[in-house]
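Quarterly update from the structural biology core.
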Amino acid sequence: MRVALVHYWLVNMGGGERVLETLCRMYPQADIFTHVLDRKALTPVIARHNIRTTFINRLPGSRALYQSYLPLMPLALEQLDLTGYDLIISSESGPAKGVITRADSLHVCYCHTPMRYLWDNWPEYLDSAGPLTRLGMRFLLPGLRRWDLLSASRVDHFVANSRTVARRIRKHWRRAAKVVYPPVNIDAFTMRTSGKGEFYLCLGRLADYKRVDLAVKACSRLNRPLLVAGEGKARKALQACAGPCVRFLGRQDDAAVAALLARSRVLLFPGEEDFGIVPLEAAASGVPVLAYGRGGATETVRENSTGLFFAEQSVEALEEAILAFERREADFDPAEMRRHAEAFNEARFMQEFAAEVEAAKTALLQS
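Predicted structure, tokenized:
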């Protein structure tokens, strides 16, 4: 079969791109379609594929301003010619699933989440936008939501990256989805076998919804050393509320992230995520996690085994979790955490996702 992989944009290597990298290993001859491409940001596994872009890639400043072109992305997707492909796998958390395919082809969507700025998190995006963007979004959101719902009907089979996302798919698109957890590259992380670590750690993009502000404020008030690794629009505001015990490292490469985890005392994970691969990377390093007890973290963190939950997104709740962890720090077993992470390995993802594709193929042939 000729295979096409459709990914929303390729401008950095986040969690969605790690899944795409595994799909590239599963389908080494596949062509990739995306809205915006920055080849320097890709790993060799992805870069060796034939990658085609939509017209969004040719618009001014597309690599930096790609999200501003969201209203044009439905049109761009529908102009892609995928008639030569038998299997289309879309990777969705930005517009990707809306491609038009042959009636006899199979379209499987691996969904990281329905677009947050259309559904669950639209109020936060409006609040953080400028006046003109807010005005434009209020006019455009209803039409984009209608298109998003319509395009869900073009997918033959949905696979969600967590039970949390499967519930969102059912809520927003009225479609069922099987769950296959994303792969974690366990071998990239070294398990800490002794000592309690040097600092608290926050990893990931610095966006408002990730609530890194809670970690910065809690550690500042408790005078606990915190390293913040990541970049994003929220950095300036976070630095303004940080005490002297907080250091901002900026974006780190994979090797630097693994080294930071190996030296950290605990990972702070205060946002509500769709899946949350970072807590599993911490577990692979033998590092406990203090996580907000909603969303994908409830599927990747085991209470009292690989970490602790706090019940509300407040500085006070996170402070209490930090103090509770410090009283029980010796109870967490690095080997047990590593075993938990190993259940999410890449081979498991490949096997389960391939089984979903085969099941969808059989259902299509019988329909």
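The domain at 186-342 is CATH 3.40.50.2000 (Rossmann fold).
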